[in-house]
Amino acid sequence: MFALKFLKKAQFDNYDDYVQNAVPVVPDNFNFAYDVIDVIATETPDKVALLWTDDSGEKRKFTFRDMSLMSNAAANFLTSRGLKRGDTVLVFLRRRWEYWILMMAMHKLGVIPIPSTNQLKAEDIKYRVDTAQVQAIIAFDDGHILGEIHSAVGDMSLPLILNTDVTDAIKTMPTSLERIPNENTDTMVIYFTSGTTNLPKMVAHNYTYPLGHINTAVFWQRLRDGDIHFTLSESGWAKCSWGKMYGQWLAGATVFVYDFTGSAAAHNLLTAIAENHITSFCAPPTAYKMLIHADMSQYDLSSLVKADIAGEALNPEVYERFLEKTGIKVREGFGQTETCVMLFNNEWIEPKPGSMGKPAAGWDVMLLDERGHPVEDGVVGEICISLKNNRPVGLFQGYHNGEKQTAAVFRDNVYHTGDVAYRDSDGYFWFVGRNDDLIKTSGYRVSPFEVESVLLEHPAVREVAVTGIPDSSRGMAVKATIVLNKYFQPTDVLTRQLQDHVRTRTAPYKCPRVIEFVDALPMTISGKIRRALIRTLDSAKNTILEPVKKA
User: pTM, whole model, 2 decimals?
Assistant: First the structure.
């Protein structure tokens, strides 16, 4: 396993041994494209790096030799188009195979990619072009994004490179490339945050970032040589870096990519897993919710032995249903665009359904109250990372061109995530929510996730978002916005049944006073529930929805 070259120790006996000895040793002037891809290409050139297929049935296979030579050719092509070290480039490539070639090419050149989702609209693109002072755009023509790009940039003299330009160029461009030196602290990649409550920020990661994903792939996803790993994410999100590139190749795994248009149906995902002998799968909760409602027994999933989840907290009901159908314990991991995995259920601990697990090696995770003091077990606090003894490999270096934003989260030698959780007596962390999502009712603090998990146990509930609405006597009241499963109808009787379901399984103050049935929940383009939008829409009504009286 190539990752072992960057660790002090090769084998670990237990969780404590791992925490103490699995911190990466970072070489000077490290560059993932040169020091991992090119070296593997020399040592095991025929090892498969990438298996790619799309929903039309096209398939491609790339060895590490292919990745090395093609990224050199792509780098020479980008240089011929005037791109140089320090330039920023927006990249819209969905899940096209050219993305992986181009990322390695830009890392070699010192060009800074800004991976972006093809779901962006013109105003989103213009904001990114202006804020990041973009020098070029690379895109795949999917029938949508080019029109939005042209609307955004207008007559700006901004080079636009299509994926077809790249595929043509790598056939003719030289495949030799002289190494361009970099510093570990140079910016390697920038991700824009989702921007669900404020304008998106530019998260800047430096050249040590890939080594932080040794935790992600080797110790959370438990990948080894010979594994074929399938992470669902589109290339425009940081989860692609988490699951489809750096750590997986360091672990010796093959990355599987399924490029599809729109949303993937359960049948297509299960077919892809079965036909490509996937051994490891990682996706957000929305995907697992979809899979457990499918007839999974119709597919040969015998190759699948590992499953992980991230993006939002894992509801225990989803965990139990997937375990029942597959025999696989889904292991949750927690992190942000700004980090690598910092909490997870690893191979040395038994997962507790709904828990984020324990801290990753190198991450000194604390829970702090509003005054910055550590809280006791069982008490909710903000998830923070102490930087007193070390700065974790994989923690972002700051918000690009955002000194005030950076200063707001790095205070008193601590990184503040803005997420809140509690720790149980066994050292497991349990997600509660974003600070802004907590509901303060009658003097209590209610976690939306906790109430959502209880409601998802009811057979009528397919999806749910729990938020707070103004209440003259309680300050805030708990509200549940629910998408029903097939064959269930929104009635007053069902509303009371759902309230009783919550009331009998948790504290009475957590029971939703208001229940609203909807056809779909508002989601971010990364698939997360937009609770802030629900609150905004409720606030715009300027009244409290009348709670249904108990029978």
Answer: 0.84
